[in-house]
Amino acid sequence: MNNWFRSKKMNEQDFNDNEIFEEAAEEISVEDKRRFNAEGEIIDADSKGRKSKEPVKSAREIELENKLNAETTRREAAESKLIGVQAKFDEAKTGLERETAEMRSRMQKTLEERSKQSQFNFLATLLPILDNLNLAIDASEQNASFENLLSGVKGTARSFEKALVSVGVEPVASVGETFNPELHEAIDAVEGDAENDGKITAEYSRGYKIGNQLLRPARVQVGKAATQKASAE
Fold first, then answer.
1. Nearest to 157 by CA among 96, 165, 91
2. Domains of the chain by start residue, with CATH
3. Residue 208 in contact with residue 169, Cβ under 8 Å?
4. Using one digit for the tens of pLDDT, what is the confidence trace for 224-233?
5. CA-to-CA distance for 174 and 212, rounded, in angstroms?
6. Distance CA 155, CA 26 (A)
7. What is the pTM of this model?
8. Is the CB of residue 130 less than 8 Å from the CB of residue 152?
9. Is there a contact between 198 and 184 (Cβ–Cβ < 8 Å)?
10. In the chain, which residues have pLDDT < 70?
11. What pLDDT does residue 179 have?
């Protein structure tokens, strides 16, 4: 009787111990949901059995991220400002190119008008020359004397030279001047005194220049000292 009672008492005690162990295990299972993976990182398990990874950031990492975000914002603002400056530059460049093209067009038009006006003025100065030629012809028909014809031709030549001067054309000085190959063309040479050596003694056709540009050289005769000619032979 006593043995049976003790046996029953022990069974009840064992049952109570098992029940306490199971409750403790269940409590531990509910409270401890965190596990560590092979790398030592904490893994949380949700109700569906999926595992999510939550990296832990240090204060240094957070500081660097904030600095990176601030630098990114600053650079985006700088790029936006640069785009605006580039747009204004392109607009100014386009305007300047347009103004330059318009100015070039106006200058070209002005030069063309001046050229036409110069041609008009030059042709107007040639008309009196034609009048003088016609007068010389009429005079020679009425009076065939040589003096009248010569006077008419000389008057026509003077009128033509005045017309050339009016447009900036000047005759090249020749007779009595020192020969200059840039202005004169030597047709022949004549023996003479030493003081005339290298001097122009005669002009076959007059040369002309406009400004510093030579229209044509004067065709001339050049003096040469007799002593130099003899020594050369």
1. 165
2. 81-167 (3.90.20), 170-233 (2.30.22.10)
3. yes
4. 887 654 444 4
5. 16
6. 140
7. 0.46
8. no
9. no
10. 1-55, 144, 227-233
11. 93
